């Protein structure tokens, strides 16, 4: 897959390849698109922020845009590519603006 196949602030259901090479199903919220990867949060598992390489995504099963009032917000500084240079996972808890916090 390539960068143009994805869109920021969307929900995707995909088949992806983990670090061990196993195929996994996944439901993710896409926060940002970087040069070779995207920053996503697993919506059906641990909720960690992850850097998911476009090359690791094998198939998009479902794609859904998220309305502006339902978007999950994270400070732009956290989503910068320089912050993800040496990491693949980050613990970060945030909520959408219309749900309190």
Description:
This protein has 101 residues and is mainly β. Helix content is 4%, strand content 41%. Strands 5-1-2-3-4-6 form a six-stranded antiparallel sheet, with no helix packed on it. Strand 2 and strand 3 form a beta hairpin. It is globular, with a radius of gyration of 13 Å. The termini are far apart. The relative contact order is 0.23.
Radius of gyration: 13 Å
Strand content: 35-45%
> Sheet bearing the most strands, described?
6 strands, antiparallel
- Roughly what percent helix? under 10%
* Spatial ordering of strands, largest sheet: 5-1-2-3-4-6
Number of strand elements: 6
The ordered string of helix (H) and strand (E) elements is EEEEEHE
In summary, what is this structure?
It contains 1 helix and 6 strands, in the order E-E-E-E-E-H-E.
